What we know:
The protein is an all-beta fold. The chain has one domain (about 20-125): Immunoglobulins (Immunoglobulin-like), CATH 2.60.40. About 0% of the residues lie in helices and about 50% in strands. It has strands spanning about 20-30, 30-35, 50-55, 65-70, 75, 85-95, 95-100, 100-110, 120-125. Strands 3, 4, 6, 7, 8 and 9 form a six-stranded antiparallel β-sheet that branches. The protein has a three-stranded antiparallel β-sheet with strand order 1-2-5, with no helix packed on it. The protein is elongated and about 70 Å long.
Amino acid sequence: MPLRDSCVVVYFSGKPTAPRNLRVTTVSKDSVSLAWDQPEHNGGSPVKRYVVEKADEKQVVFSHVGYTSADTRQFKVTKLLEGNHYKFRVAAENEFGLGNPTSLSVTVMDELPPGQLQFLIVKIGR
Length: 126
């Protein structure tokens, strides 16, 4: 039986890759504003939302701080303590689940006069 010309299209679906370019946009004495770019690949399904988590740098366990919609790629993390070191991570979620996060460590320095803080980005990674 001769083979006929045919075309097979294969789609791979899965979780999205990590968001890109996680960065700090502003810092105050008790908050940090984060922004990021969309993942390079959405896993074959549109990103539904982003999940934002934080951890005290001395802790291993991250806690949930909020969600954003797929088209909102910024978030303000509040209720931070001046002088503490924090880790933040953001992950994209689609219908197949939560992808790997991208992470960022931030040190909120308390050696400045009250009301004037700066931040130091310690480590960026996945």
